[in-house]
Amino acid sequence: MKITVRLDDITPDMDWDKFERFKKVLDEHDIKPLIGVVPDNKDEKLSCGPVHEDFWTYVKELQNSGWVVALHGFNHIYTTKEPGIFPIGGKSEFAGLPYSAQDDMLREARRIFVSHDIRTDIFMAPSHSFDKKTIKSLKKNGIHRITDGFGTMPYSRYGMTFYPIAVKKSSSIKDTRDGYTTFVYHVNTMNDKDFDNFRQLFDKATVVSYSELLGVDPIERGVFGNLCEYITAKTKYIVMTLRNRTAH
Q1: What pLDDT, in 10s, does the model give residues 173-207?
Q2: Contacts of 145 (CB under 8 A, 6+ apart)
Q3: CB neighbour list of residue 34: distance below 8 Å, 6 or more residues apart
Q4: How many helices (H) does the chain have, and how many strands (E)?
Q5: How many angstroms separate the CA atoms of 110 and 225, rounded?
Q6: Measuring CA to CA, which residue among 69, 70, 66, 94 is closest to residue 80?
Q7: Which pTM value belongs to this model?
């Protein structure tokens, strides 16, 4: 199994020390990840330090160097508790809202990207939550790829191409099947142990740049595969919810 890397919650005021620490490891291995950039962040939880004044110029430089940029929502503010089509989260910025509201948000998000010369056709939903109305608006706004889902290959659904993420990192590392999956990281909340595990990943697995995954043709997946994905996602959410309750 080949592994690609995805970084969520990229904002002008994220924890830049941790971001640069993470980037240093990627650079050492010449790996270009997928980064989810929030167009107009309003989520205070993502504000972890001083604002990077040249943020958009830097994002453009990363994109020009081979990093892949995804549209990570709009404001990153959760408006509903709808899990959406891929139910591994219990909240959403989009799912459950009327189509007109979602379309207004996504149109403005894309406008912000274009105003900074950031072009992408990849969507990264906050908390992995989106619904059919989200997909309808994404397609209207020229976005036809989503980084989410489970599986070992990109797949087609609803006229979109989905690029699966890992159900469990340790299991994916041990998986000897042909295919791809994506490891999701949130650098703002990573600790020393997390960074050690990330560095060790390159000794345990075949890690490739995200652009390689984008070059793989999607497969057609049937009803059974979609049902299995939904059940797996729902189960993962329930397990994580119970684990968090026990921890507190």
Answers
A1: 999 999 999 999 999 999 999 999 999 999 999 99
A2: 121, 122, 123, 160, 161, 162, 163, 214
A3: 4, 5, 6, 7, 67, 68, 69, 70, 122, 124, 147, 182, 210
A4: 8, 10
A5: 31
A6: 94
A7: 0.95
Mean pLDDT for 123-134 is: 97
The domain ranges of the chain are 2-247
3-class secondary structure, 100: helix
Q: Please enumerate in sequence order all residues whose Cβ is within 8 A of that of 116, keeping only pairs 6 or more positions apart, or say none.
A: 56, 59, 60
Q: Are 154 and 216 in contact (CB under 8 A)?
A: yes
Q: What SS3 state is found at 141?
A: coil
pLDDT digits (tens, 9 = 90+) for 94-110: 999 999 999 999 999 99
Burial class of residue 174 in the structure, from the number of CB atoms within 10 Å of its CB (0-12 exposed, 13-18 middle, 19+ buried): exposed
What is the third-level CATH fold of 2-247?
TIM Barrel (3.20.20)
CA 194 to chain CA centroid, nearest Å: 18
For residue 181 the two structure tokens come to: 């999956």
Torsion of CA 42, 45, 46, 51, to 10 degrees: 80
DSSP secondary structure letter of residue 142: T
What string of DSSP letters covers 28-92?
A: HTT---EEEE-TT---GGG--S---TTHHHHHHHHHHTT-EEEE--SS----B----SS-S-S-B
